[in-house]
Design goal:
about 425 residues; alpha/beta; FAD/NAD(P)-binding domain; Polyamine Oxidase, Chain A, domain 2; 7-stranded mixed β-sheet; 13 helices; 18 strands; globular
Amino acid sequence: MKPVHTVVIGAGPAGIGAALALGRDALVLERASGPGGLCASVSLDGAVFDLGGHSFHTPHAHVRELVHGALPMEECRRDAWCHVAGEWVPYPFQQHFGELSDASVVDECRDGMRVASEALAAADFDEFIERRYGPGIARHFLRPYNRKLWGPDLARLDTSWTRARVAPLREPAAGQEGERLALRDGEIVAYPARGAYGEIFRALAERLSSVRYGESVAAVEDGAVRTRAGERIACRQVVSTLPLPALVALIPDAPAALRDSVSRLAALPLALVMLALEKPLETRRQRVYDASRDFPGHKIVLNHNSSRWLREKTRHGILVEVSGAQGDMDDAMLAVRVVAGLREMGLLSATAGVTASHVLRVALGYPAPTHGRAQAVGEAKAWLASKGITTLGRFGEWDYINSDEALHRGLQAGARLAGAG
């Protein structure tokens, strides 16, 4: 085919954002049969599931305008809870532990707050939990929950991501334009008025000038991209949303030191346990964060409470995220344990039948914010930029970001490349 200005690899949020900003100058190549990447949605026996727990909220006004202008969206107050020792506490635990029935636990958490301070620096995430929240909150929720998610060694994680992800002891003032803060108690979030979360990216992908699905990339060469079908596409520059180690592996002349550096980036695999129910949910909760040892999952997603259209469906579903840090368990046993745990919690009543179950294994679920990650990514970005390659997205930048942030960064990068071209 004739040369193109920019080849965009991947039609997830970051790739779509870059291609929208580049307009007719972009050709998007997507391995899957449709857009969305990790924000795609699937159906199981009439129930609808997202690949993880998604809802739309953003500090970027232009991203909100883009999404709400692409399709009808429905806003609601986020109904999120923490499940602790058999009790329900509104999210976040650190602001609502006083609702626990055990007075000794409440006193321990409250006493710990007296020695906690946002001014105390921490060398790692484990130390951050203790210093910012006190030993009581750390012991009863934050440590067990995060060990369940990230694994037992929380000291291997840095603290660069915490302001955007871990709620403070007290509700902060609103952040500045574009500043990401942890979700607040009762945050207003949005969801497609019809369909699942993936509808956002289907609607945005319809605006792309040129996109080819079912197209995998075999190599990224100087001035060209080669597909697995053998086609060589000449281009001036490349925008990639591939996982950083996978991208570097496709570049024939990538330095051995760079290959080694990005190969050490850590990620958490996920098992997504999907349960289709014979009747609608009996709760209006949307998210549950579970810190108990017995239940395999850390996050429970009840997306059928995200919109009126979903609530009116005959079949509802529950999705449970299980971190790879929980060890190996075969799919059948994992589903059995999840169902039993949901029944014990009361999220799945004794009379509610499960009509179908499916466990989807996701090799790259969360990029782990380990020490040295920022340096490795920065060095990779600099070398790639010298080759005319921009890397974007959650795993393209190995950054624990949401879909709106990936879309924002894609739009920014696309506008910059369009201006430079």
